[in-house]
Specification:
The protein is 66% helix and 0% strand. It is mainly α. The longest helix is centred in the last third of the chain and has 21 residues, at 609-629.
Length: 651
């Protein structure tokens, strides 16, 4: 992988050499400046990770003058802390890591963790007294308890006890001891903790808290516990009613659980009874409106009626239009569009759909006038409008700005040198931190220089971000790069997937950030879920453990394999394939009708908001990427989005 990245960067520098002598003079030596010491650094990092810290330290002098020398010291100390029997003995050396306060803060946190593991509370307190020590709420509480400072529910203890999302096992230890030592608990904290635990479904812990309530409140909490499994009965019960903040929180949680199984019944109940739980008429209308939209997304038979009777929130207004499009009810579509706000009606999206509805009613001239007004927009609906008029897409890349002076100044900054070296040494997450700190609050010209510098060395995610932050919205070379081209070219020929589609997906998924991980667990450039990566790997005989998915070559290989799978499954239709890549093939199959639906309408009516936005972005990215790759030649979206019904699927 490392060699592959070096080859890619060499090719990039070669292209820049022939394209611009100025860029060559500025950038061709950036990566090579510390190449010798970088090789030593990476060897020593491998030794540290292998537990050979002393051997690595013996060669430290070989890194003198290297921008990441302090990071080497940080790695050594981190390893030593893990094995230390007296963590506080390293405090002076950790304090010596002062060039980067965040590295020091991490080490202080590691020392606190090690002290907790060893039960060395004196060490813990010494570290905690450091000005840069991070706050570890539960460990700090346990330390205080073991040092005789947490024998009652002081304000911070009370707040921590109530905030269950911040708890760790050490919080449980400290609170178990504290509750055994006090005769009473704060009422407000007790209620907050109880409500939070019920909402999480931790009913056993709530049951343990019942003894702290008076008899009246205990019965209420017991009814809530029972209601977790039978929400409809609990909400209908007179005993569960009340207007306190806690009643409201539990009532809404129970309503949401009821709505999972019987949404129309939950809506009907809430319409008449929300006031008994302290909700205002406006709150009630908004909740019913959101549930009505949810009914549409779930395909519930009563959805249209519920939507029409709901208050006209933004989502309700939008989905009334979409329902009309789904049903080919063109006049209803026009009526629903008329109910949008003036600002909404002027958006390219809704102007396009007005034109489509007018066109379907036979008002071609009126429709064409609207299409003409948005066909020049550099966005998804602009491309669709150009298709309706058989016009060329109006894509234009601006000339890259002249930022030679800013570029030289930027390159001379120590933190930028360090950021780049982190990237070259395959530590991009550390580099981003440095890079972002330098550019925070920088001038637009400096950000443009940063975009040029990052792009020239193949740090594509930083180039994209810097260009956007500098409002260089037409610097398409920076915003839509052919990133990791060597890896893409290596595998694209094996599969029937357009290369520009790969870039369209990669840009949307990660903005070319090789090590990014989503909250849902997706990893890397193509944002692969570990289970999907494993399955694709098994199909081609490659091991794909989750920890390897930040390897750009492996990630791209498996991502292209999965794109080929969904592309073929949905008859080479980019819209359906993109939706399947994001939401899964089984969901897309459910969203397909038995009768063919125009592809642009199908995209607009995708039930998942995230997937709908994702598909539009991927299609737009694909067009622009192809335009750049093919010298201005593009394949029309209408030719990539053939109409498909569920009965036509390739199983």
């Amino acid at each position: 992988e490392y060699m592959s990245l070096r080859i890619t960067r060499f090719l990039i520098c070669s292209v820049l050499f022939f394209a611009s002598p100025v860029l060559l003079a500025d950038h061709s030596q950036v990566e090579d400046r510390y190449s010798g010491k970088r090789k030593i650094f990476q060897e020593l990092v491998d030794q540290i990770e292998a537990g050979q810290t002393d051997s690595a330290l013996a060669r430290r002098d070989q890194l003198q003058g290297y921008p990441l020398l302090e990071y080497f010291d940080y790695l050594v100390l981190r390893q030593q802390i893990k094995g230390s029997s007296e963590p506080a003995s390293l405090l002076d050396r950790v304090s010596g890591i002062n060039e980067d306060s965040r590295l020091q803060r991490r080490l202080l946190g590691a020392m606190k963790n090690r002290s907790v593991t060893l039960g060395r509370w004196q060490d813990y307190n010494l570290v905690q007294a450091h000005d840069n020590a991070p706050v570890h709420p539960c460990d700090d509480l346990l330390s205080g308890y073991n040092n005789g400072k947490a024998k009652q529910f002081v304000e911070t203890t009370r707040d921590l006890w109530a905030d269950v999302d911040r708890h760790t096992a050490n919080c449980d230890k400290a609170f178990a001891q504290l509750l055994g030592a006090v005769s009473d608990v704060p009422t407000a904290a007790l209620w907050h903790r109880t409500v939070a635990l019920i909402k999480r479904g931790d009913l056993d812990t709530v049951t343990d808290l019942l003894k702290y309530f008076n008899s009246h409140d205990r019965k209420l909490v017991q009814s809530w516990i029972k209601g977790y499994k039978n929400p409809a009965d609990a909400l209908r019960s007179q005993s569960s009613r009340g207007a306190t903040v806690h009643h409201k929180a539990i009532a809404e949680m129970l309503l949401n659980r009821w709505a999972r199984n019987d949404l129309p019944a939950a809506i009907e109940f809430w319409r008449d009874n929300a006031k008994h739980f302290g909700f205002s008429e406006a709150d009630t209308r908004d909740k019913i409106a959101s549930y009505s939209v949810l009914a549409v997304k779930r395909g519930i038979p009563q959805a249209a009626a519920l939507l029409n009777s709901a208050s006209a929130t933004r989502d309700v207004r939008y989905w009334r239009v979409r329902i009309a499009l789904q049903n080919s009810d063109w006049q209803h579509c026009i009526d629903a569009l008329d109910q949008l706000t003036a600002e909404e009606q002027n958006m390219p999206r809704w102007r396009y759909w007005r034109a489509r509805c007018l066109e379907s009613q036979g008002f071609q001239s009126a429709a064409d006038r609207i299409y003409e007004g948005i066909a020049g927009a550099f966005e998804y609906y602009g491309f669709l409008a150009a298709d309706r008029l058989s016009q060329s897409y109006r894509i234009k890349a601006s000339a890259l700005p002249e930022v030679a002076n800013e570029l030289h100044q930027l390159k001379d900054q120590v933190q930028i040198t360090q950021a780049l070296e982190y990237f070259f040494a395959d530590l991009p997450w550390e580099g981003r931190r440095k890079w972002n700190r330098v550019l925070k609050g920088a001038s637009e010209q400096t950000k443009l220089a940063a975009a040029q510098l990052a792009h020239s060395v193949g740090w594509y995610d930083r180039a994209v971000v810097a260009a956007y932050n500098a409002n260089a919205n037409r610097a398409l070379q920076w915003l839509f790069p052919q990133a990791y081209k060597a890896e893409v070219d290596r595998y694209i020929d094996y599969y029937d997937v357009p290369e520009e589609f790969v870039y369209g997906v990669m840009r949307r998924e990660s903005r070319f950030t090789s090590d990014v991980k989503s909250p849902a667990g997706a990893v890397g450039l193509m944002q692969l879920m570990p289970a999907t990566a494993k399955e694709m790997g098994q199909q081609i005989g490659v091991k794909a453990p989750a920890w390897r998915l930040t390897d750009s070559q492996l990630n791209i290989r498996l991502g292209i394999r999965y794109l080929d799978h969904v592309f073929g499954r949905f008859d080479n239709n980019l819209a359906y394939a993109a939706a399947a890549y994001n939401a899964g093939p089984s969901r897309v199959k459910k969203w397909l009708a038995d009768r063919p639906v125009a592809a642009d309408i199908w995209v607009e009516t995708i039930p998942f908001d995230e997937t709908r936005a994702y598909v539009k972005a991927v299609l737009f990215n694909t067009v622009v990427s192809e335009w750049l790759m093919r010298d201005g030649r593009v394949t029309r979206l209408q030719n990539r989005m053939n109409t498909l019904s569920v009965t036509q699927l390739v199983e």
